[in-house]
Design a protein that fits this description.
Distance between the termini: 23 Å
Radius of gyration: 14 Å
Shape: globular
Strand order of the largest sheet: 1-2-3-4
Number of strands: 4
Structural class: alpha+beta
Order of helices and strands: HHEHEEEH
Number of helices: 4
Strand content: 15-25%
Largest sheet: 4 strands, mixed
Amino acid sequence: MREGIQDVRGSLNKLRPGALEQSSLQEALAKMIAEFGEVSQVEIEFNFSWGEVDLEKTTEDTIFRLIEESLTNSVRHGKAKKIVITFYQVTDYYITIQDDGIGSYQVKFQLLPDVSIGYWDDFKERFGF
């Protein structure tokens, strides 16, 4: 399993530049998530209801890497078999990531008005950054 995840990460690192250059954030994430789910044999539910949001490239890169790292850590450290990733908008933009792994809980990120990622400290603590 560990080698499989390393192979996925290597593939994802190669996929990323073209994925976001040639596709929307939603499309690039959907492709990456589908490939990860197939290789890792983890059930991943992906819900994206941000619509056509216009983000800086660095913000898209950060979100892409955040999801990539969350998937990897959910499987590697949490031994998750199911992951749910939801992008939604109330007033601000939010991302929640839930899994059924060990020590699992819901992680919630907020895209703040200045287009930075809120709750980053929680993410760094949970995933060891």
